[in-house]
Structures are given as C-alpha cells and as structure tokens.
Amino acid sequence: MGFYNKMSWVLAFLGFMFLGGISNANGAIHHYDFVLKETNFTRLCSTKSILTVNGSLPGPTITVRKGDTAFVNVHNQGLYGLTIHWHGVKQPRNPWSDGPENVTQCPIPAGTNFTYEVIFSNEEGTLWWHAHSDWTRATVYGAIVILPALNTTYPFATPDAQETLVLASWFKGDVMEIIEEALASGGDPNISDAFLINGQPGDLYDCSNETTYRLLVDYGKTYLLRVINAVMNEEQFFAIANHTLTVVAQDAAYIKPITTSYIMITPGQTMDILVTANQPLSHYYIASKAFVDGVVPFNNSTTTAIVQYNGNYSAPSTPSFPTLPDYDNQTAADNFTNQIRALASKEHPISVPLEIHSKIIISIAINERICPNSNCSGPNNNAISASLNNISFELPSIDILQAYYGGNNNGVYRTSFPNKPPYYFNFTGDVGNNTLYPNFGTRVRMIKYGEGVEIVFQGTNIIAPENHPMHLHGFSFYVVGTGYGNFNSTTSPKTYNLDDPPEVNTIGVPKNGWTAIRFVADNPGVWFMHCHLERHSSWGMDTVLIVRNGNTTESTIRPPPAYMPPCSKS
C-alpha cells in the first residue's frame, strides 16, 4: 500500500495496524509514498502502457481515522508533469496541497517529487484521490478510507468486513492523445471502451472473464461496501443481483439509511453501502452501467464483478444478474437521489446556514467556439466549449493561488466572475442563440471569510442538456433544493429542505433543472469548482472561488511549504 513512517519500522508497523503513527492534538500522522510510473496493462485483448501509482490499478488506498493527517510524497517517474487532488478532503487553510493544476499549484515535473500534506477534519467515510491534470485521472486514482475516530464507532452496527469498489473507465487509446485531439478538432472526445470495477472490465467484455473481480463473502455476514465513481464521463447505475443495498453515507458524511435495489452515482461521488450476504450459496453479479439523460456520445456497455459465497456448492454456469434501470431512465435516477437526507443526529449534527450573505446563480451550458475557417468538428463547424455564467474558463500559465497569495496578480486572473447569468431567458426551453458563444477567460469569485453562501446551479437547454455533477474543492455543502425547469427566486426557495439536507462535495444538477447548495465560507483559500464530467471540464465548465482571510490566524491561509513545484513548462 506504499505506507512509510519516518520513525522506526516498529512504529511504522504499529501505526499501520492501529491506524496510529505519531499522535498529535489533531490526530495521527501517516506517511505514504506514491511512485508515478508507466506500467504495461492488458485489457480487452490488447496491452498498452498506462500511468499508474505504485504500478497498480486502482492505486493504493489511503487509510486514516477522522482528524488524522497524511503526508504523501509523490515521486513523478512518468513522462510529463501532473498533480494529485484529494477529492472531498477539505484541507482547512491548506489549499497548497489541494492539487488542481494551475489553480493551486503547477504540475510536478517529471523526474521530481512533491509532498502533499493531506489534512482530514470532519470527514468520515469514503473519499478518493486522483490526478488533476488533463485526463490523467483515467488511470491515476485510488480510494481514501476514513474510519471513525478512536473511541467512536459507526452510527450503525459495525460490519463484519468492508471492501472498496472503484468504478472507472478504460480506453484502448492513449487518454492524453484522445483529449488533445478532441480539443484540436473541436469535436467530442472518443468514448471509453469499457467500464471497470477495481481495475477489471468483467465477464461481458472480450478477453476479460478470467480476471473478473470477485468479492468473497461468508453467509450471514454484513459487509460495508465503499463505492467510488471514478468514471470519466458517465453517471452510473449500480446493483448486486438478489441483494438489498442499504446506503448509509455519501461523500464521507452519514445519511439516513436508504434501502434500495440499485443506486445512481455520479462521477466524483462516493457511497457507503451495507450488504448482508443472506442468499443461497452461489455466485451473483455486481453490475454497473451508464445513466445518460442527454443526446450525447456515451459508453453503453456494462461492467461486472462477482459476489462469490464461500462454502461447498456447485457454482452456476452463469451467475444471477441484477436488474438495472435503462440507461436513460431519469425517473429511476430521481427516485433514488430524492431519498438522500443527512443523518443529522446528535453524534453527527449538521449546521445549515440560514443567513445568506452571498447568493450566486450560475447557468451551466454547452457552447460553441467560433472556428476561423469553419473547419472544426463541433456543431455548425465550430468547436465545442462549455461555460458557467457564459464564461468559459481558461487555465493560466501559473497557478492562481501563487498569484493571489503573493499579491501580484499580473493579469493571471480577474475577479469579475458574475453573480448571475449575463441576462435571463428561458434557460430550459427554447433558448434560440442565447449565449451560444461564451466569453473566455480566467474569472474568479471573491468571497469574504465567514459568509453564508448560496449557489443555485441552473441547467440550460443550450446544444446538449444533461445532468452535470458539480464539484467544489475545499468544502462540503448542503443540497437544500432541486427541481426541473427554471429556478424561481420567489417560489423555489419555498421547497428548500433546511432540516436534513445531505452534505456532499459533488452533486448532479438535473438535466434542464436546478440545484441550490449552501455552505459557510470558513475555509480561506483558492478553491476550484467544476463539472466532474471530464470532457465538460476540459471545455471550460469551471470557475474558482477565492475565500479571503479572516481576522485571526485560525482564519488565515497557512504559509506555503518550503517547496512548491515550479511554474514552468513540464
């Protein structure tokens, strides 16, 4: 797992066994080494070289307890520079280790290393880490398991065992070339060739049934499954044949238990699920396939793993298969997500901000970028782009955090990201040519420390409407409302749930609908916000929130580490 403690090997062993290490007032300290390198993998009947961490797919799991800190030394032995993001970890006052390329740091050059300080605070459950440079996260990703703090326990009966299931994408081609070619041509990038569960495509793909991932279970035991959607461009339906799923957490925050036969999980989200092995001894398929509610290219295949009971019995020639909703079953997706409510218990309270100081309405759109010679591969011979409030985000050549912290912007970014769409129209109806062509630039939104913030994400019907999984770095937020059609500032807030809204870091904004979120801006720093469909982020569906320092040391960005990767071509 790549675990190294700087103390003696004895302490390292004990620290791993007891999730300890060297304790301090803020929890235990853990040390990991991540070695980025090219490794040959064979999938779908062919072999190719992919970028990996420590030679594995998925990469190593980081295991901590609530409130711990992990130092992860990333050794880049790959071919190009990149960064790592700790998805869902709030990193209080520490944007230096958040990871998005040219937002909070420049890439780690090939042949060098950089140590991230990953500070855990109130997260408890499952998160994940992934590369945050171009499309490198297609193969550079892994789980983060955050166990309850010492002397505390789960808000449910302690499971007999636990297992992590990471859903991901596999491309036969080189992922960097795929996105580079798409951006150059202006068209859609190639879709993936398979989905994976723990690095394996499963029985339904060519040359794959010998390596299908198997989850071995004992009859009568209850298992905590930590499900992560690391897929590049598709939401997923997920189910296990003949077994009931009890969802107990999402994005490392507990929810009121949901009993269901399937889940819908967007890229970036995690869910903790209890499953009791109470069926006749046999083999049962775990299956996952895309949920896509837009008219867009997507991978319509199904990945599988197998729940295999221990014991003496004749294995079936074909395991039982779960019933999954159709790929475009929006009702099935809504029926699941509408049930999600925060646990909101005495031991796991929530604190929804009721006083709002900054209200921001953000329209989400797919757009066009005019091609001078009308020879691009997108709509109307233009290039596809994407935007938030009609601003298509452009990454600067040096990172925004460095420019902001040093007080020397020099045109790296502008503080003019608008509080609302440039003008109002029927966002989800006949949009005509409204905001078809966005502005391009590096615009950020400044927020005062301690403000109550409400953001309303408004989907639009421009070009290709679909569900957008929006992710905010540096915070979890409360999803207080959602609906279809256009947000109405008078009537829509009357539908808000302020009692037990789920606290998440990634939320699917419904196709041609809206979602309202709230949070307190209590984490000073530079924080990226973007769609977690990778092609949308590449097209510019991103922005940055800068939370200013407060008046105390505890409300001020920490000083930068002694070394940060240099901002030069890598």
From TrEMBL:
Name the top EC class: oxidoreductase
Plastocyanin-like domain location, by residue? 37-148, 164-312, 418-550
User: Where does it primarily localize?
Assistant: secreted
The residues forming the signal peptide are 1-27
GO molecular function term, any single one? copper ion binding
Family from the record: Belongs to the multicopper oxidase family.
Entry protein name: Laccase
Which lineage ranks, top first, belong to the organism behind this chain?
Eukaryota, Viridiplantae, Streptophyta, Embryophyta, Tracheophyta
